[in-house]
Design a protein that fits this description.
The protein has five helices and six strands; from the N terminus they run αβαβββαβαβα. The chain is of the alpha/beta class and 162 residues long. Strand 2 and strand 3 form a beta hairpin. 30% of the residues are buried.
Length: 162
Amino acid sequence: MSSQGGHANSTGGTLEKSVVGALTSKGFQVVPYRKWIKCPKNYGNELLLTNAPYKTIYNHSGNSEFLLLSNKYNMRIRIECKWQQSAGSVDEKFPYLYLNAVEVMPEAEIIIIVDGGGYKKGAVEWLKSAAAEKKYIKTNNPKKIRIMNLSEFLVWVNTTFR
């Protein structure tokens, strides 16, 4: 029997494995960011980098689950995964995650995948609304933040990478 935290990590890992499966089926190579950054020329141009670092709004080290790089599609997209299938605190971190996306994540496009159905009422709606309204994003900033559940992400993958 696993602890509640162990179970949460396990179910969150299932979401991340789904993202990896969807993108590897489209030809992306999965490489740890820290291995890739030492010698990028050793890898191809269609990559899904894992544990991609950034500096948080608190100026601490943070990591996103993925950084999608594609020369073919001219993409550089940071991907965050959040899974909560029962009461917990993941949804309380949405404003922090969103502000990190707005202020310090260097990519112009960010996808936040939220799923599990256990979020507090209004949490996902707030996150979707903030992203849709480009809340806290300066007018001339082209940053695009998209909020998707796993099904929506799979549809996006299948339509984007035909």
